[in-house]
Amino acid sequence: MLTFIGLGLYDERSITVAGQEALRNADRAYAEFYTSELIGTSVTELEEYHGVEIEVRDRAGVERDPGDILEAAADEDVAFLTAGDTMISTTHVDLRLRAHERGIETRVIHGVTARTATSALTGLQNYRFGKATTLPFPYAHGADGLPASVTETIDDNRADGLHTIVYLDIKAEREEYMTADVGAELLAEEYPDLVGVVVARAGSPDPLVEAATLTELADREFGEPLHLLVIPGECHLLEADALVELAGADRETLEIS
């Protein structure tokens, strides 16, 4: 059995009760933290809290060479851990399909996602979010200006009146996390007057939500990671009220349908 367990958003306590039970009953536990991380804890703290040993795998150890994980799962109960919800990344879908090809039973125990937390914290309705995008560090994509994947996603969503989540680049192996002010500065080169909403430390005891134009956000600080940005599309009246009340938005800058 191979059980995929989402650990939630922040620390060792963010896991669901069902996930905790499955993890503690597993014979072996593997984890990856290159797609996202739990900023509020460490692997050692996870191990101590749940009473398990966890082997952390890098990208190659999951995507190119997962043979030992699958071999273990053929005879034992194996837990595979990720931050957030375990099936958000195609990496994990691929691993699940490889298990099925070998006749290994799998199950999924979900965790809270950044997307659902963002909707809850900002008051923007979940069904009105379009396709999400990731803003890479400039050195990571090697092109001038914003990548087309970012601008096309924002432009297409805005044309349909939809909100856009912009995930900010993480280089876990270097402990490098793009902050919202840096992301806003990069986006402001193309969209200086658009409103952005910063969501920082979702799932923690002290999340932050702050709205302003991207130019204004670029000059502010938002504390410890993880951060993301939302580019609102057209807002319903209730959504506009929420951004004003919960994020300090200037109502005059919002597009209200």
SSE order and pairing:
Blueprint: E1 2-6, H1 17-25, E2 28-31, H2 43-50, E3 55-56, H3 59-63, H4 67-75, E4 78-82, H5 90-101, E5 106-109, H6 114-122, E6 133-135, H7 138-141, H8 148-159, E7 164-168, E8 170-171, E9 176-177, H9 180-188, E10 195-200, E11 208-213, H10 214-217, E12 227-231, H11 237-247
Parallel strand pairs: 1-4, 1-5, 2-3, 2-4, 6-7
Antiparallel strand pairs: 7-12, 8-9, 10-11, 10-12
Describe this structure as you would to a colleague:
This protein is α/β, with parallel strands linked by helices and 257 residues long. The chain folds into two domains: 2-109, Tetrapyrrole methylase, N-terminal domain (Cobalt-precorrin-4 Transmethylase, domain 1), CATH 3.40.1010; 114-253, Methyltransferase, Cobalt-precorrin-4 Transmethylase, Domain 2 (2-Layer Sandwich). 36% of the residues lie in helices and 19% in strands. It has eleven helices and twelve strands. The chain has helices at residues 17-25, 43-50, 59-63, 67-75, 90-101, 114-122, 138-141, 148-159, 180-188, 214-217, 237-247, and strands at residues 2-6, 28-31, 55-56, 78-82, 106-109, 133-135, 164-168, 170-171, 176-177, 195-200, 208-213, 227-231. The strands form three sheets. The protein has a five-stranded parallel beta sheet, with helices on both faces. It has a five-stranded mixed beta sheet with strand order 6-7-12-10-11, sandwiched between helices. Strands 8-9 form a two-stranded antiparallel sheet.
